[in-house]
C-alpha cells in the first residue's frame, strides 16, 4: 500500500514525497487527500517507493505541506465539533491571509505547484492573491512587478493593443 509507516492517529499511513531536488517529505493520507494527484497515486497503489514530484522543489513543497496540514487538521476538527466550525473557518481565513503573504517568486511557484499537485483550494487562494496584486495596474507596472522585459517593438505593441482593445476599456 502506501510507502512508509503507520501514522497512528495522525490520519492514516504516511506518504513519502520526493521533490525535484531529491528532498523527502512525509504527509498523512488525510493531508494527501487535499492533492488529487497524490490521492490518485494512493488509489492506484503507486506510492510504495514514494511519490516523485519532478515539478516541485523542496522549499515550495514545504510551503504546500504547511497549507495542507493546516487545512486537513481544521477539516478534521470541524468534523468532530460542528459547533466549532465557525471559529475554525475564521482561524483558517486568518491562516490563509498570513500564509499567502509571500514574495512574488514563491507565489508564482505556489500557483504552479498547486496546479501540478491539483490542490484546488490552494490554487484558488494563490491565484486570487496574484489577481489582487495586478488588479488596477498598467502593463508597465505589471512588467515591473514581475521583472518582465518588454521585447515588443512599438509597432507590435500597438497591434496587440488594437487586437485586444476590449481589455483596455473600462
From TrEMBL:
The keyword Nucleotidyltransferase does not apply. One of its GO terms (biological process) is ubiquitin-dependent protein catabolic process. Residues 13-72 form the SKP1 component POZ domain. This is SKP1-like protein. Keywords: Ubl conjugation pathway. Residues 121-167 form the SKP1 component dimerisation domain. Pfam families: Skp1, Skp1_POZ. The keyword GTP-binding does not apply. It comes from the Eukaryota. Belongs to the SKP1 family. Signal peptide: none annotated. Involved in ubiquitination and subsequent proteasomal degradation of target proteins. Together with CUL1, RBX1 and a F-box protein, it forms a SCF E3 ubiquitin ligase complex. The functional specificity of this complex depends on the type of F-box protein. In the SCF complex, it serves as an adapter that links the F-box protein to CUL1. Pathway: Protein modification; protein ubiquitination. Part of a SCF (SKP1-cullin-F-box) protein ligase complex. InterPro entries: SKP1 (IPR016897), SKP1-like (IPR001232), SKP1-like_dim_sf (IPR036296), SKP1/BTB/POZ_sf (IPR011333), Skp1_comp_dimer (IPR016072), Skp1_comp_POZ (IPR016073).
Amino acid at each position: 500500500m502506501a510507502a512508509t509507516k503507520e501514522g497512528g492517529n495522525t490520519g492514516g499511513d504516511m506518504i513519502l514525497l520526493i521533490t525535484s531536488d531529491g528532498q523527502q517529505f512525509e504527509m498523512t493520507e488525510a493531508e494527501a487527500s487535499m492533492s488529487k494527484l497524490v490521492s490518485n497515486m494512493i488509489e492506484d497503489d503507486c506510492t510504495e517507493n514514494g511519490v516523485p514530484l519532478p515539478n516541485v522543489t523542496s522549499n515550495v513543497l514545504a510551503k504546500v505541506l504547511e497549507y495542507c496540514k493546516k487545512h486537513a487538521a481544521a477539516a478534521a476538527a470541524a468534523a468532530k465539533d460542528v459547533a466549532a466550525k465557525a471559529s475554525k473557518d475564521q482561524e483558517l481565513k486568518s491562516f490563509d491571509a498570513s500564509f499567502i503573504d509571500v514574495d512574488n517568486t514563491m507565489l508564482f511557484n505556489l500557483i504552479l505547484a498547486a496546479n501540478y499537485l491539483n490542490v484546488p483550494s490552494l490554487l484558488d487562494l494563490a491565484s486570487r492573491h496574484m489577481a489582487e496584486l495586478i488588479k488596477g495596474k498598467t502593463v508597465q507596472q505589471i512588467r515591473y512587478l514581475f521583472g518582465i522585459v518588454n521585447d515588443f517593438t512599438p509597432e507590435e505593441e500597438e497591434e496587440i493593443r488594437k487586437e485586444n482593445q476590449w481589455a483596455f476599456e473600462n
